Amino acid sequence: MQMRGWVLLLGAGLVLGGGCTGNVGRGRGRVIVAGELKQWHTMTLTFDGPRANEAGTPNPFLDYRLDVLFTKHDSRYVVPGYYAADGNAGQTGATGGRQWRVHFLPPEPGEWAYAVSFRRGPNIALEGSPQFPRDPGDEARVTRHRRRPGVLHGMTGTLAIEPTDKTGRDFRAQGLLRYTGHRYLQFAHTGTYFLKGGADSPENFLAYADFDGTYDTAELTRSGEAAGEKFIHQYEPHVADWRPGEGSQTQKDAFGGPDPTWRDGKGKGIIGALNYLAAKGMNSVYFLTYNLDGGDGQDVWPWTDPQERFRFDCSKLDQWEIVFLHMDTLGIALHVVTQETENDQALDDGELGRQRKLYYRELIARFAHHPALVWNLGEENTNTDEQRKAFAQYIRDLDPYRHPIVVHTYPGQYDQVYTPLLGYEHFEGPSLQTNDTHRQTKKWIDLSAQAGRPWFVCLDEIGPSHAGVKPDSIDYWHDEVRKKHLWANLMAGGAGVEWYFGYSFPHNDLNCEDWRSRDHMWDLTRYALDFFRDHLPFARMSHHDELTSAPDDYCFARPGHVYAIYLPSGGTTDLDLGRTTATFQIRWYDPRHGGPLQMGTLASTTGPGRANIGQPPEHTDKDWVALVQRTER
User: Fold this and answer.
1) The dihedral of CA 516, 519, 521, 524: what is its sign?
2) Taking the domains of the chain in order of start, what are their residue ranges?
């Protein structure tokens, strides 16, 4: 049997593919293990369990609980599972079946053991995590004395995981994107730090016509910011960006040759859109998973019906998963925004109750295995500090990979929302909505460091809400966005940006169909990210605007070693080199066109004290970046 990248485990028999090895599982059930058996590649274990239905009783989402313990020496991961209908609902549209599933992201090669806990009872999905013993073999012996609603309870087995073989942008080559106590997130495998550039719009990215059970529930017309007729995304301009056969070998193995689709060719528009964004060098997308109950779009939800809160649409969520897996291969991070200001009091009246707990659990069980993912507690959030902390702790306790947790807030409410979260162990940073980008980025970097838990500070929305980032056809050079927001965040030590599209312009935050409407903005963003990644040891640098004499420039430095100076109006400035007598080379970078470093009017300068850095090579009234680097030890 010739099968690539998957393992089939049947009671006491094992069929292997892709040159992998493993051991026989123990138990009377059946498990299919799908995925390449490699580090940082998603392993999907699908078990035979009790037959159920999305609409059935007992409720398969609320009244059953699947958890799987994965262990290797001292490494221990308790991973929540979920009901998967027939195991292929994304392709079949099935609402019933006997398949139960868990996703595991192995953080290291070697032999991993697993043990299954599967229990039944009213609301059992909302109970605390099971207390697995360290040895899965012990767990198998213990569970024989427990109530066994299905043969998979107490099953054990092993997986032989090989090192990753992926390269480049693919997150399976880079590993888990994690918070490490620094103001930049870091990839666990490569050790590289992450700078974000991507799309904040459309926020209802998942309101896509090709997803099962997806439609616009709004009235015929909307008012205010969401004004417009009923609408659902097609992404028709990006269908041509879907690749019919030029995908990676991994894509060919997993999806039969071309980029993925589902249900007889659906999905080309959204997959093509992501291909385009990745080709522009972007690496993050912001999207809501729930915008009902008064939300702007009223067209995204994970449940079987807009009025339902305890039953989940297996086929729709499987189709989301196809898209998210494709994002992993492209190197596009998932910025998962769990609610918005209009509906953040809807689930359990804003509390952490049955609805919200089950909602978070399903999101975590289905999607937490993605290597680069950030949980956002809500857009323009109005929950209380106590509620936000409860949400964050609940997510942290369930998420085996400890993905970063952030929250987005209104301009002017930074102190109210963020100050109580300073130093909080289950929170990693603000998702800024601001027009005061440089100052707010510096402020929260400094305050969080003083509190002993440095935050990564991202700019995720600029205003005013009717404008944001305008289409290239209206604002080709995006001077204000480039100067006051893009470079303002990065030069303060910020972790990157996502761009919001204002509602008064074509392809806005709710109806954007074509990311090419901001094609040049992606280029300008990439030029900034390239400069930081190619020329700066940015993780060892910090904001030092006090070292330069120009009133409106930004200075990002490791004093005595390297200085980056952004001059929004060009010209020159003096730089305080301190007491050093070293010589420093001066080169210039064009933030409007990118490209190599260039020579200006002054090749070098020498300390100590203040030194002039000269002029850029041309267009001296335009913005430039001076790179001043020490040339002697």
Assistant:
1) positive
2) 6-165, 177-538, 544-630
| CA gap 469, 630 in Å, rounded | 37
For residues 285 and 247, which has the higher predicted lDDT (pLDDT)? Answer: 285
Tell me how many degrees the CA angle 363-367-371 measures, rounded to the nearest 5.
140
Mark residue 545 as left, alpha or beta (left: phi above 0; alpha: psi -120 to 50; beta: remaining).
alpha
Give CA–CA dist 81/13, Å, rounded: 23
- What is 544-630's CATH number, 2.40.50, 2.40.360, 2.60.40, 2.60.290? 2.60.290
> For the CA atoms of the chain, what is the radius of gyration?
25
| CB-CB contact of 199 with 233 (8 Å) | no
What's the pLDDT score for residue 245?
74
Q: Which residues contact 306 (CB under 8 A, 6 or more apart)?
A: 217, 292
User: What does the alpha-carbon distance between residue 568 and residue 380 come to, in Å, rounded to a whole number?
Assistant: 30
Cβ pair 458, 495 in contact under 8 A: yes
Distance between CA atoms of 87 and 100, rounded to whole angstroms? Answer: 7
- Strand ordering across the sheet containing 43-53: 13-16, 6-10, 30-34, 43-53, 96-104, 82-83
The fourth-level CATH superfamily of domain 6-165 is Immunoglobulins (2.60.40.10)
Q: Are strands 110-120 and 96-104 parallel, antiparallel or unpaired?
A: unpaired
Mean pLDDT is lowest, of 228-237, 432-441, 506-515, 550-559, for: 228-237
What number of other Cβ atoms are within 10 A of residue 188's Cβ? 17
One fold for both 6-165 and 177-538? no
What is the structure's pLDDT at 19? 27
Q: Right CATH number for 177-538 from 3.20.20.80, 1.10.3210.10, 3.90.45.10, 2.60.40.10? A: 3.20.20.80
Q: How far apart are CA 57 and CA 60, in angstroms?
A: 7
pLDDT attached to residue 257:
54
Q: What is the pLDDT of residues 120-162, one digit of tens each?
A: 999 999 986 665 544 544 444 433 334 344 468 889 999 999 9
77-122 per-position pLDDT tens digit: 999 999 999 999 999 999 999 999 999 999 999 999 999 999 999 9
Cβ atoms of 564 and 625 within 8 Å: the answer is yes
State how far Cα 75 lies from the chain centre: 24
Token pair in block for residue 552 = 């409106």
State residue 219's pLDDT score.
Answer: 75
Look-up of token digits 């609902």 = 89
Q: What is the pLDDT of residue 140?
A: 42
Beta strands in 141-300 (DSSP E): 156-161, 177-178, 186-187, 196-199, 221-222, 228-229, 284-288
On the CB side of 130, CA atoms within 13 Å amount to 29
From CA 320, how far away is CA 284, in angstroms rounded? 16
pLDDT value at position 221? 65
DSSP class of residue 245 equals S
Tokens at 206, concatenated? 């998942």
Q: Residue 605 in 3-state DSSP?
A: strand
- Determine the 3-state secondary structure of 316 from DSSP: helix
For the record, the structure tokens of 414 come out as 């930074």
- The mean per-residue pLDDT over the stretch 45-62 comes to 97
pLDDT by residue (tens digit) across 363-421?
A: 999 999 999 999 999 999 999 999 999 999 999 999 999 999 999 999 989 999 999 99
Report pLDDT for 228.
75
Predicted pLDDT of residue 4:
31
